[in-house]
Amino acid sequence: MLRLIGIILLVLIGAPSHAQQAFPFHDKPGSFAVGFRVLGQVDPSRSYPAGAPAGARKPRPIQTAIWYPAVKGGQAMRYDDYLQLLGWDDDFDRSPAERDKVLAEWLRIVTEGRSTEQIAAERRHVRWAVREAKALPGKYPVVIYSPSLSSNVFENAEMMELLASHGYVVIASPALGVDGRWQKDDLAHAETQAADIRFLVGYAQSLPQADTSRLAVAGFSWGGMANVLAAAQDERIKALVCLDGTVRYRHAMLEKVPYLKPAQLRTPLLYLAQRPPPFERGLKHKPDHSGSILQKMTGADVYLLTMYAMEHVYFGSSYLRLDPLDFGDYTRDEVAQSYAQSARYVLHFLNGALKGDREGFAYLMQKPEQLGMPRHSVHSQFFAARPWLPP
Asked: Residue 58: beta bridge partners?
């Protein structure tokens, strides 16, 4: 009897822990160490809030996050270090107590339904980036990241760290509204975010590491429309990445933009799309692909990759980490694998567009099983640029 009790105790002691694990990012870092720094800039050419009385207006705040190739060494960040940026992303003068209050309210809204153990696991998760690491000498291509509606700079921190580890300087700012922190779903707010992108493009020219002759803008959702608007006005932007970008779904809105002439755009585009939702689901905003700008961009190479494990929100890693998401017919790990594959697609596209690596473009067209993914998990389409002839 005593021997049986001993065996049971050994089994219990040796049993695996049920401690919560952070959401897994399955990609491996490149050969570069990753540094991270953040600063509070302002755009004096624009007021914030724009509708405030003259005496209450201030320059538009541009919280600027930068991931960059760095000298190896130093203490790696925790995910909580990114979360702390929420407290002052629209007001640099908040006290520490006020910043804590903003973060607590954001976490309350976003993580509703998550256990305290799950949230704690995410907050203590160790990152690749090292805060204020010494920049590695050299010149590197630049990627500006444009977040989804009203979102934050670290919305896709995993993807940004991956790019920096492969020799890119990545810059992001929050998606702020015109008159306050929250954006509205209208053209004025999309164009304001496009102006933020152009501000960051100009700022990148001041960075010793940044080769702004090789510059792309990546955007998720709303940011994946603002970046196209920015490219239509700024020839410094040489490539575009849309993570299920709104540009595919807002045709009536985009037709009102006089400077957006899709057939005249020469900027190569990678578009990663969610799986087609069934119409029976009764979506509030049903996708309308008729007259899609992707079809109208006949003067640019367009890569359209449909990721069948991905719903729209899954393209933002901060939501995968913190939202109580229901993955439906897919497992948590299947979605994590698909997110990681999405990040690799972005990396290879940028290698092709900014580094001249033709194998990067070829990677996009490989079958999923060649890349270690399940068959039918990705559908790849390529639309080659055609010469533009004036009417």
From this structure: 48
Contact by Cβ (8 Å): 217, 147: no
Cβ atoms within 10 Å, residue 325: 17
- Annotate 123-140 with DSSP letters as a single string: HT-EEEEEETPPBPSS-E
Identify the H or E element spanning 171.
strand 169-172
How many whole angstroms from its chain centre is CA 144? Answer: 10
Q: Show the tokens assigned to 14.
A: 């040796």
pLDDT tens-digit map of 209-247: 999 999 999 999 999 999 999 999 999 999 999 999 999
| Closest by CA position to 151, among listed 90, 241, 211, 200 | 90
Closest by CA position to 251, among listed 279, 278, 285: 285
Q: What is the DSSP-derived secondary structure letter of residue 115?
A: -
The count of residues in the chain is: 391
Phi, psi of 242, deg, nearest 5 = -120, 115
Output the pTM of the full model: 0.91
DSSP conformation letters of 72-83 = S-SPEEEHHHHH
Residue located via tokens 């980036």? 129
Interatomic CA distance for residues 47 and 45, integer angstroms: 7
Q: How far is CA 93 from the centre of its chain?
A: 26
Q: 375: which residues sit within 8 A by CB, 6+ positions away?
A: 367, 368, 369
| 270, 245 Cβ separation under 8 angstroms | no
Between the two ends of the chain, the Cα-to-Cα distance in Å is 93
Query: Distances in Å between the alpha carbon of 384 and those of 58, 239, 268, 295, 299?
Result: 45, 15, 9, 11, 8
Q: What is the pLDDT of residues 93-134, one digit of tens each?
A: 999 999 999 999 999 999 988 889 999 999 999 999 999 999
Q: Per-residue pLDDT for 5 more than 60? A: no
The label of the residue with tokens 């697609």 reads 345
Mean pLDDT of 337-349: 98
* Sign of the alpha-carbon torsion through 164, 310, 104, 56: positive
**H/E element, 13:** helix 2-14
pLDDT of 4 reads 38
Q: Hey, what amino acid is at 239? A: A
3-state secondary structure of 283: coil
Using one digit for the tens of pLDDT, what is the confidence trace for 25-73?
Answer: 999 999 999 999 999 999 999 999 988 787 778 999 999 999 999 999 9
